[in-house]
Amino acid sequence: MNKRLLGIAAGIAVVAAVLVIWWMRRDSDKPAAGPGSAVVTTAKSQTGPRAPAKPASVAGRVTKKADGSGVAGAVVSIARAELGAELSSVTVPTIVVTADANGAWEAKNVAPGDFMIAATAKGMLPSAREKLTIASGEQRTGIDFALEAGGTIVKGTVSDVGGGPIGGARVTAKRAQWSLKAGAEFVTVTSGDGTYELSLPDGSYRMNAAHDDYTQDGERAEVAGKPLTIDFTLIPGAVIQGQVIARDTRKPVPGAVVSAGGGRGGGGRGGGGGRGSTATTDEEGRFVMRGLSSGAVTLTARGRGY
User: Which residue ranges form the domains of the chain, and what is each CATH number?
Assistant: First the structure.
């Protein structure tokens, strides 16, 4: 079944929401929550407004350790790594980029902060860099990875509820051990027929499949030297779109993080996606949140200096 037709049949809801970030020292009126409305909560700055953050960029190359040649199609993930990120109800979406024919990659519009960056490729052990701090407006280069052949194959198919394949879905494997520190995320992207393949070191993992038009599905995996097949089934999700503006100036706020909490779950069998969905506003302060579960949600916006 075509995933777009299925999404229409399931009645994907598009809700327009305009969020207002509240300045410190300004008391906010509590918004009323009626049918189709969104309840917005924001944290007040304790130190006064700061200059808005400027988007940064990060770039590098993925090569084979054996001969130094580039790894075409390698997948690089850039995940937040602040202390306590595992417990936070407000998360910044992991950035996923694919290397070109020479193994070169670049991620643009990266919000400043601490990140764990990892690279994966079919038939090779994933590699992760230690926590990397990116400054506002920085153009960081030289974030390179040299991958070795090996690992245990974990593969499968990501499908919709009608059995149709979902191409372009992100499949993530993350170490299952609990920690206050965020860990590296090993990510691959499904092909047009919905199939994926990761090569992982032995250990316990939280596996998760996600696509912008669907809710997430999760699974626990024990990788122990034998190939595993793990399939995922995704359900079409709702969509929220809107704009974040400053209360006093009514100007758009770029780079703000909007999070949605509540809904009816959608974390799947392994609990993936249980911390809610997030989106980052563009230069016009606009955002689109996809793959939301049905039910009432609470929207929260946070921006640097507000």
Answer: 3-52+236-302 (no CATH), 56-234 (2.60.40.1120)
Q: Determine the Cα–Cα distance for residues 258 and 20; give it in Å rounded to an integer.
A: 11
The one-character DSSP state at 296 is -
**Tokens encoding 151:** 């690992």
Residue from 93, 126, 55 nearest 283 by CA: 55
Per residue of the chain (306 residues), what is the pLDDT tens digit? 444 434 433 343 333 333 333 333 334 444 443 333 333 333 445 555 556 678 899 999 999 999 999 999 999 999 988 765 554 444 567 999 999 999 999 999 898 889 999 999 999 999 999 899 999 999 999 999 999 999 999 999 999 999 999 999 999 999 987 766 667 999 999 999 999 999 999 999 999 999 988 988 999 999 999 999 999 999 998 889 999 999 888 999 988 889 887 655 444 443 333 345 788 898 899 998 887 877 788 899 988 777
For residues 275 and 269, what is the distance between their CA atoms, to the nearest angstrom? 15
Residue 255: which of 70, 117, 129, 112 has the closest Cα? 112
The DSSP code for 238 is E
> Which residue, among 103, 71, 304, has the nearest Cα to 199 in the 3D structure?
71
Query: What are the residues whose beta carbons fall under 8 Å from the beta carbon of 220, sequence distance 6 or more?
Result: 176, 204, 205, 206, 207, 269, 270
